[in-house]
Amino acid sequence: MFILAVAIIAISFSSIFVKWSAAPVAIMAMYRLWMTNVLMLPFVWRKGSEMFTLGGKATGLLVGSGAALGLHFLLWMESLRYTSVASSTAFMALEPVMVMLGSYWAFQQRSSLSRIIGMAVAVVGAIAIGWGDWGLSPQALQGDLLSVLGTAAVALHMILGQSLRSKLSSVSYSFAVFAVAGGVLALYSLIQGYAFFGYKAVDWGVFALLAVVPTILGHYIFNWLLKYMDATSVSMSVLGEPIGATILAYFLLGEALTAIQLGAGVLLIGGVWLFIRSNGQQAVPHEVDAVTKESA
């Protein structure tokens, strides 16, 4: 349980680090992924040949999964420029719900009544957060929308990558999608005319912290824990991130919660909790897989 707590705290720092840097979010996300891949190299070289055995369809899914992950980072991290940490991370907790909806559409996977009820409660909570943020400013609502779209993107990443997990090891899959996502973000940065160098020392520090803390100490630990804990227990950690991030934002950024944010956040997280608990086979969510969970 101590190791699980460490991982939850680690991923909770992701949104804080993003707020600490003024660099374009595409640059931040790109360096986060590429720095992580550099740290992974000693473990990847042994299994790198796996990627050369993929067929055309599997390669296409891999590229699509990586592109969706890059889009997730771009949208979610950009949301933090407009809305609070509490609102942005609360919407990210909807990932397992969106994965279920996508799986139903793509694979006709049916869900139980309790999962549908949990999803409905979570959606009501999400709408309430958006309504409350609209009262604060239209800009905050824009950030909420970006977070929702970013959550949809990471859900697509998970769905596209689902069939690849039997063909690639976790390390190889992670390395490949990180490389593709980083490439997509690099291309976007070139189109936007962002500088790749010349950032302040604090920005480079944030890039490195994003790679080491939420990715290595967060996502990779979750992936490792899957060897010793059931997927449902690990996936419940998705509920820990908005709580941990909100507490950290209060002390480190001075962001206070409004009454609506608090009430709606509890409703949203409660709905996701019911949703996950209703199925003992629930897949691991958003920032929850070093490799499968590369989100936030």
UniProtKB/TrEMBL annotation:
Any one annotated GO CC term:
plasma membrane
Membrane topology note: Multi-pass membrane protein
Domain EamA residue range list: 3-129, 143-276
User: Where does the record say this protein resides?
Assistant: Cell membrane
What keywords does the record list, in alphabetical order? Cell membrane, Membrane, Transmembrane, Transmembrane helix
Q: Where are the transmembrane segments?
A: 24-46, 58-77, 89-107, 116-134, 140-160, 172-195, 201-222, 234-253, 259-276
InterPro entries hit by this protein:
AA-Vitamin_Transporters, EamA_dom, EmrE-like
* Highest taxon of the lineage: Bacteria
The family note in this entry says: Belongs to the EamA transporter family.
- In Swiss-Prot or TrEMBL terms, this protein is called Multidrug transporter
Tell me what organism the protein belongs to.
Answer: Paenibacillus swuensis
